[in-house]
Amino acid sequence: MNKVIIFSAPSGSGKTTVVNHLLNVIPELGFSISATTRKPRINEENGREYYFLDENDFNTKVANNEFLEHEEVYKGIQYGTLKSEVERLWSLGKTVVFDVDVLGGMNIKKQYGDAALSVFLRPPSIEILMERLKKRSTEVEHQLNMRIEKAQEELKYENKYDVVIINDHLNLALTEAEMIVKIFIYS
Ligand code: ADP
Ligand code: 5GP
User: Fold this and answer.
1) Domains of the chain: total
2) Residue-level pLDDT at 144
3) Ligand 1 mutation target, pool 101, 132, 135, 155, most atoms within 8 A of CB
4) Which residue owns the Cα nearest ligand 2 atom 18?
5) Cβ atoms of residues 121 and 157 within 8 Å
6) What is the DSSP letter of 81?
7) Measured from the CB, is residue 105 less than 6 Å from ligand 2?
8) pTM score, whole prediction
9) Which ligand is nearest to the CA of 6?
10) Tens digits of per-residue pLDDT, 49-93?
11) Cα of 99 to ligand 2 centre, how many Å?
12) Which of 2, 4, 1 is nearest to 110 (CA)?
């Protein structure tokens, strides 16, 4: 059976850290590269973290029904999962890993049912989340505030996910994530 794993978490919870670890240690996984209208960060590359599109190109893909799901995650910034990504990864025999916001996560889970495992990664507290975001230094002040505001909303969705992992001590969270994912893909 073709399977998918959905990771959602408020920005700064450690989703990228956990997902990258899983991709490194579990070769059966393949990352679904989303499209976004956000500008690349300093160490991001088009076609690696995201397909960076302008508004027009993104809207054309929406009109052509090329997205499995898409959301305006932050005001004026669009993100979306391309159907072609899922097909590409399944054709390679991979279990697809999504890093999406809570609405995207709910949407994908609804479409794939038992073939999907949804995982919510939670920071130990909102204060620690703020600290991590500030330390990461990738966002200017207003974007940081936008992410913290959104985080409060996103935390309300955790009980809608199949599994919740608390990312306090990183090594513990990585081990837990690895175990949960392996059980799902090998069962
Ligand atoms: P996200 O993808 O959810 O926005 P990141 O993976 O970029 O989050 O993590 C945000 C920041 O927090 C990064 O600088 C990362 O190195 C750090 N981080 C992640 N997990 C932990 C942890 N358990 N303890 C301390 N710092 C962490
Ligand atoms: P960032 O800008 O920090 O890379 O991501 C911001 C948020 O957008 C994160 O919550 C991330 O999970 C979400 N996101 C990334 N790609 C997609 C996508 O394809 N669809 C949806 N719905 N959300 C996404």
Assistant:
1) 1
2) 82
3) 132
4) 80
5) no
6) E
7) no
8) 0.94
9) 2
10) 999 999 999 999 999 999 999 999 989 999 999 999 999 999 999
11) 6
12) 4
